[in-house]
Structure formats: structure tokens, C-alpha cells
């Protein structure tokens, strides 16, 4: 009888321990929303996603244009600024098999070339922004700064939200 009780106790203890461990397993991240490029039910057409992004960007640019009250004299630098902000198509992913054929130094050089291209794009945007900013009066500059901060904050929040979906925080452990 004693042996039977020990078996029951050890079985119950094992069940309790395993259920406690199971309860601490973080839930899987929620699936991407339908229409998001990473939705598992079928990837949204990347061109369609980019078109929606362009529409959102055009709407924001029109709102900023109105808020800044861009004058006819400022229209040229405004258009150059908008043109510099046009999203560039990301480069096609490198073929993993081709990259595998390269040695470490060559792979690093390829990565550095990509970073240089990105830096050149950023420099073009910065130059256009500087030209626009110089053409704005102090009141317009203040509006521009406030809007730029707001958009940056929204982007950071959106990226943090996406990161949380992919990698939920570990549960607190005693």
C-alpha cells in the first residue's frame, strides 16, 4: 500500500511540475494581419503593399504641404524634397548559393557595398531636406520639426509593436 501511495504522489508531483512549466511557456506571437506582406494565409502582393504605402505617404506629404503653407517660391525645393523621399525598391535578395561561393572577405565587401548604396540614398535625402529647411521661415521650420518628430515616434512605435509580435517578452519568473 505504501508503495502505491508513493507512486501516486510522484505521479501527481510530476504532473504538477510539468503543468507549471507548460503554463510558463510564452504564447506564440499573433499571426500577421490579413493583407500584411508576412501573412501566412498567402503573401500579399509586395507591389500592392508598396502601393498602399505610397498612398499613405502621399497623404502625409499633402497634409504637411498644407500645414507648412508652402509658397510658390518654396514649391521647387518642396518637390525636390518629396522626390528624394520616394521609396526605392529594395535590392533583390542575394542568392544564398552565390553568397556561399564567396569567401568571408568577399561577403563582407558585398554587405559594405549595400551599406554604401543606402548611405548615398540617405545623403541625397539629407541634402534635399537641408535645402527645404533653409527655404522655410522660422514658423514653418517649427511645424516641420514637430511633424518630423511625430512621424519618427510613430515609426518607432510601429517597429516596436512588430518586434513584440515576432519576439514576445519572456514571462516574469520568480
From TrEMBL:
<feature type="region of interest" description="Disordered">
    <location>
        <begin position="21"/>
        <end position="43"/>
    </location>
</feature>
<dbReference type="Pfam" id="PF07813">
    <property type="entry name" value="LTXXQ"/>
</dbReference>
<protein>
    <recommendedName>
        <fullName>LTXXQ motif family protein</fullName>
    </recommendedName>
</protein>
<keyword id="KW-0732">Signal</keyword>
<dbReference type="InterPro" id="IPR012899">
    <property type="entry name" value="LTXXQ"/>
</dbReference>
<feature type="region of interest" description="Disordered">
    <location>
        <begin position="141"/>
        <end position="174"/>
    </location>
</feature>
<feature type="signal peptide">
    <location>
        <begin position="1"/>
        <end position="23"/>
    </location>
</feature>
<feature type="compositionally biased region" description="Basic and acidic residues">
    <location>
        <begin position="142"/>
        <end position="174"/>
    </location>
</feature>
<feature type="compositionally biased region" description="Pro residues">
    <location>
        <begin position="25"/>
        <end position="34"/>
    </location>
</feature>
Amino acid at each position: 500500500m505504501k508503495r502505491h501511495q508513493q507512486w501516486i504522489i510522484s505521479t501527481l508531483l510530476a504532473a504538477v511540475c510539468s503543468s507549471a512549466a507548460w503554463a510558463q511557456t510564452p504564447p506564440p506571437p499573433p499571426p500577421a494581419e490579413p493583407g500584411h506582406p508576412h501573412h501566412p494565409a498567402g503573401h500579399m502582393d509586395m507591389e500592392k503593399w508598396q502601393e498602399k504605402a505610397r498612398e499613405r505617404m502621399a497623404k502625409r506629404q499633402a497634409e504637411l504641404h498644407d500645414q507648412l503653407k508652402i509658397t510658390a517660391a518654396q514649391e521647387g525645393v518642396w518637390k525636390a524634397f518629396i522626390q528624394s523621399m520616394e521609396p526605392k525598391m529594395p535590392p533583390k535578395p542575394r542568392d544564398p548559393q552565390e553568397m556561399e561561393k564567396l569567401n568571408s572577405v568577399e561577403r563582407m565587401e558585398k554587405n559594405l557595398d549595400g551599406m554604401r548604396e543606402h548611405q548615398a540614398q540617405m545623403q541625397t535625402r539629407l541634402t534635399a531636406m537641408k535645402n527645404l529647411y533653409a527655404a522655410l521661415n522660422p514658423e514653418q521650420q517649427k511645424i516641420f520639426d514637430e511633424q518630423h518628430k511625430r512621424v519618427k515616434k510613430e515609426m518607432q512605435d510601429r517597429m516596436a509593436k512588430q518586434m513584440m509580435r515576432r519576439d514576445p517578452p519572456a514571462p516574469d519568473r520568480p
